[in-house]
Every structure is written in C-alpha cells, then in structure tokens.
Specification:
This protein has helices at about 45-50, 75-80, 95-105, 115-125, 140-150, 170-185, 195-205, 220-225, 230-235, and strands at about 5-15, 20-30, 35, 60-65, 65-70, 80-85, 160, 190-195, 205-210, 215-220. By secondary structure, the protein is α/β, with parallel strands linked by helices. Helix 3 packs parallel to helix 5 (about 140-150). The mean pLDDT is about 95. The protein binds adenosine-5'-triphosphate (ATP) and magnesium ion. Keywords: ATP-binding, Nucleotide-binding, Transport.
C-alpha cells in the first residue's frame, strides 16, 4: 500500500516460550486514525513497543516513511517523528502542569520560548488555565491529557496511544475522543489501542483486530463489530 507511513512485516516477538507476536503484518496509512483491538495478551502493547523501538522483533521488520527502522533505537525513532503514550501517567506529580512540559520542549526550543510553547501545548490538550496546578492535584482524566501533551510536545507525525480511555469517566472519554479527532485533523497519524468499545465506536476509524500475535481481521469499525469470528474470539471460543 503506497499510503503507508508505518508498517510491520511478518514480525515475531518471542519472550522465553511466549510468542507475543507471531507473524504480524499491518500497515498504518498516513493521516488516519487506526484502532487496534483484541483480547488480553493478543500482542497489542508488544506491537507498540516494536514500532517505537523499546523492543526489537525476534524477526521481521518495521518500516517508517519508507525507511527500515527495525534496528534503530527508540530515541532515533522519536527524532524521526514517532511518539507514544503508554497507559501509565508519565508526568511528575510534584511539578506543575506547565513545568512538566519544560522537559520535552527543552531539546527543540530556545529557553525563552519554552513557557509560551508549554502553555500552547496545554491549551491544545484542554488544560488551559491549569498551568500552575501541581499534577497530583489534577483529576485522572486531566493527568491523562497532560501525558498526551508530553507525547505531542515535540510535534510527532505519528502518535501511539495505549488505552487512553482506561479509567476515565464517560465525560472524560468523550473529551479524549474529541482530542484525538482534533489532533488527527491537524495532520497527525494516530494509532489507538483500546478495550472500550463505545470509545472505539465513537472514533469510527479503521480497526485492526489482533489475536495470538497476528492480524485476525481488519476493516471499518462497524464491519469489525458485526464480524461473527471477532465476536467469538472475545468470548474465548476461537
Ligand atoms: N516482557 C515480557 N516478558 C514475557 N512475556 C511478555 C512480556 N511482554 C508481554 N509478554 C506476553 O506476551 C503476550 C502479549 O502481551 P501484550 O502485553 O502485548 O498483550 P496486550 O494485547 O497488550 O494485552 P492487554 O490487552 O492485556 O494489554 C502476553 O502473553 C504477555 O504475557
Ligand atoms: Mg496491552
């Protein structure tokens, strides 16, 4: 597929005796929101780790913007425009929301420009007005959005979100979907791992189903939701 910005080809990842990825091939197109679903242990998080380079595949390759990045370390892939937000919150609780952003902004911006740039990122993730609040005093949802802010501070081309709606209220979940759509509208390619089907439905994006470390099904969310085989793997009978 010529529009692919990021792809994995026949990737295997073996941990001891566990085949976390077992011949996974998947392409993400430039400019899309792409949802990744699948039962617990399907290999979703391992897929992310091989994409960003915190794990090397046992075999197979990762291609980003036409370049084979399989052997590139994570920091080099980050410089090429790949960014991730894992499920845990990555901010420092004792620092303010604004101060947290100084760290990722330091590399690419002159010192004098950082506070303004940090405020702009906070506004982008819906935290305007909360600049000087210590992170530990923010709600769980606000902390999740700050973590997304930390991941987009360097203006990545591709953003990977591992379970961004986990533990959020219904209201916060809606806001998170809005934020994803907004960032995507500004041109960011976004890959989202989620278990919350209502959330994925609201994103209405192309969806890949992983099962036992392989691509099991792929299509528009409605097709996936109606797929009898996909329903069976969630019930544990396939
Ligand atoms: N570092 C590791 N060492 C050993 N086994 C691992 C490691 N990381 C993942 N695994 C195993 O690989 C398989 C895939 O794990 P992974 O975390 O990618 O699944 P997942 O689809 O993200 O699951 P979940 O929905 O529960 O987050 C699981 O069987 C898991 O136990
Ligand atoms: Mg996971």
């Amino acid at each position: 597929m010529s529009g692919a910005i990021l792809s994995v080809r026949d990737v295997h990842k073996v941990y001891g005796g566990v085949h976390a990825l077992n011949g996974l091939s998947l392409e993400v197109e430039a400019g899309e929101v792409h949802c990744v679903v699948g039962p617990n242990g399907a290999g979703k998080s391992t897929f992310f780790k091989t994409l960003i380079g915190v794990e090397r595949p046992t075999s197979g390759s990762v291609v980003y913007k036409g370049q084979d990045v399989t052997r590139l370390p994570a920091f080099r892939r980050a410089r090429l425009g790949l960014s991730v937000k894992f499920q845990n919150i990555s901010a420092f609780g004792e620092l303010t929301a604004l101060q947290n952003l100084f760290v990722p902004l330091r590399r690419n911006h002159p010192k004098a420009a950082i506070p303004e740039r940090a405020s702009a990122v906070l506004a982008k993730v819906g935290l305007a007005g909360l600049e000087d609040v210590e992170v530990r005093r923010l709600s769980h949802g606000q902390q999740q959005w700050l973590s997304i802010g930390l991941s987009i501070a360097a203006e990545p081309d591709v953003l990977l979100l591992d379970e961004p709606a986990a533990g959020l209220s219904a209201d916060e979940t809606v806001k998170t979907a809005d934020l994803i759509r907004e960032l995507n509208g500004q041109g960011m390619t976004i890959i989202v791992i989620e278990h919350d089907m209502a959330f994925i439905r609201s994103l209405n994006a192309r969806t890949s189903v992983l099962h036992y470390g392989r691509l099991f099904a792929q299509g528009a969310f409605d097709e996936i939701a109606a797929n009898a085989d996909v329903r069976r793997i969630y019930l544990g009978t396939a």
